[in-house]
Amino acid sequence: MPTYTLSVNNKKMSVEADADTPILWILRDSLNILGPKFGCGVAQCGACTIHLDGNAVRSCVVPVSAVANKKIVTIEGLSVAGDHPLQKAWEELDVAQCGYCQAGQIMSAAVLLKEKPNPTDKDIDNAMAGNICRCGTYLRIRKAIHLAAEKLNSK
Amino acid sequence: MKPNSSRRQFLKVSALSSGGLLLSFSFLNEVVMANPVEDAAFTPNGYIKISSDGSIVLMAPNPEIGQGVKTTLPIIIAEELCVDWKKIQVEFAPVDSKYGRQAAGGSGSVRGRYNELRNAGATAREMLVAAAAQTWNVPNTDCTAENGEVIHKASGRKLSYASLASKAATQEVPTKPILKDPKNFKYIGTRVNDVDAHKIATGQPLFGIDTRREGMLFAMVARSPAYGKTLGSVDDTAALKVNGVKKVIKLKNSVAVVAASTWAAKKGRDALVIQWNTTEKLENTSEHFASFKTMLEKGASSSARNDGDVDAAKQNATKILDVIYEIPALSHGQMEPLNFFADVRDGKVELYGPTQVPGQVKSDVSKQLGISEQNITINTPRQGGGFGRKLMTDNGVEAALISAAAKSPVQVQWTREDDMQNDFYRPAEMYRYRAALSKDNLLAWHQSGVGIGGGIRGDSYVAGALANYRSEGQGFKSNTPTGWWRAPGANTMAFVAESFMDEVCLELKKDPVAFRLELFEKARKEPVGRIGYDPVKYKSVVELVAKMSNWGTTPNGIYRGFATWFSFGSYAAQVVEIKMVNGKPKIIKVFCAVNCGRVINLSGAENQIQGAIVDGICHAMLPKVTFVNGAVAETNFHAYRLLRINDAPLDIEVKFVETEEAPTGLGEPGLPPIAPALANALYAATGKRIRKMPFAEQLG
Fold this sequence. Notes:
Chain A is α+β, with helices and mostly antiparallel strands. Chain A has helices spanning about 25-30, 85-90, 100-115, 120-130, 140-155, and strands at about 5-10, 10-15, 50, 55-60, 70-75. The longest helix of chain A is centred in the C-terminal third of the chain and has 16 residues, at about 140-155.
């Protein structure tokens, strides 16, 4: 098995893996980084969303061979103290029900806020349409993204 | 510490291995004493642990599947215990028969435990107060409990629960603790955030899929690709050559591949060459519906209710409405694909994973492995949704069998495709609804249903409000399995009955809200036969939602639909407002009034109702399960479509009827009315009556 050197949450890590292994399973099974969740395996639900060089990607379909020299950030690395404005907004508005999809939701929202610091509802709907929440927390997700935008802009 | 043998209730005390004191509340006439230690914890029952170091732990006894009970149940305890919510910790209670029904289903956790948990909190509070009174040598009645302290108002003295813990453990257990006057509730009825909100937002490993143990292996299972096929020959040569694959285990009707990682297990599983033999009919959804239709035309086999004379009323009618409604099978589609951890070694079993019925998993594993329940422990993590799927025990039992055969701790992981093909589906159904109408009145109502599994109820309105009413059902036998799906029965009955009621209102030119109020008033004044609902509570939600939505005045370009339904002890009425954009509905706003008794956690309750509405819109509009030669055609979310944020309503306004009554169900009752409300709004917008789910297929 080839060895890959990865940059995950600003740390260099080395793993031995088959080239076709999705980065999701490298993170979860090899590196014990469990924030990104498995939901569908075909980039349909967004539960596994991570940042790859600053873009939101579905880690269940990106093979480890494709991520060398790229910066991976997971929910664990979104903020040092777990206090990213999105994380705080999610807590404040009590967004989650089961909570399973929410790390993926927050990772998608983080990229949106970087690109659009003041998103409209429509911007949110466009950026977040790749993340399914079966519990139906979408209304609170919209509100939390607006609240996080306010927090970011008042900094 | 000496037990008082004259007590009517006794303390059961035993030493914790950690040196603390476990004091459990027992109604048994026995006293088991152990040596108390200096640093005693006060545990007056299985729900509360107060340590001398100041930590207070409250136990959540039921599985958390997103319905919020890990937060709601401890709120009830905290309220009566009089502690500072911000200073308590919450843990899942272990699965143990002393906790009674530790299940998540039937919207039953809060309504089943409300009194029990209030008593648990009040019992502990009174013992803490008694301990303080004893310390100060004052009457108990001069002392009050507040924010984790007992206060003697006259002298201004205070003692923390921590400092009173060991003395509290020696107090007599009150037989009838005095509960708080609800007027003084501090937490119940307020907004309290989920106890795991921070852990969820920071991606901490809370779920079954996140289980990691020393020496654990990962497994995937090849199960039958179609209902009607069974396991034949297995060639595992290629599978065993996959990097990381350790073992291939043949089970009764499936093959497990055990490996060093999830991905290796999957690759190994996919490399198996299996001959599946067709041993039963390979069924098709199209044939199911064709059979349903024939059965409905032939007539009913069993009657759930027959009031008055429906046939005579039909003779007198000026018009008969006679229509067919169609409901597809659904998968549960909970976000966390099934998984389970099992460690079966040396005659002992440890189980950990997502289930709504841990006690049942334990009992089923015991039977399958021939290991007594005393040697099996099971606990449940936070779960990525349930919706009824995990009322079945197959995932837990399968993991135990694999671990036993592998002689290793194993996590069995299902893929989404596995979940889709191996579900216990919301059954497909077909209904024939008939109404006998005079020029301005509903004379008779006749509903017939047929579905896989079958069964129809005869206790929901308009039964009880109408002199002539008949409800009858037929079961259809199929080898496609069925199970409970959020608001079972209600989720389909409400759609059909409340859409049909709208059809009746339109024919009679009656206002849909006014006509229902008229019916509930009839059911209240002169009920026909037994009624399974409270017409006054039904009216309470219909009137409230009419007021919230300013019913009767429709904003420009907006189309509205109304529906109401009673399920799991609670009443919900909804008005949905839509706009048509390029032939498709855009849901602008939903108003929802709920009567669910006293609301415990307003934030959680509102979230449940909003979520149930989104969930109900989702499953009315988009997904369906289609069996083609026994296989599910919709293998993943690309084909089994779930609602996304861009189709979610812009606003959902929820109001709860203010009431002093004990809580009733909340996880399910918000869902049933939305599908008919939406269908009724679509009729208002398009003039087209939708009598079939999913709606989106019919909107062009």
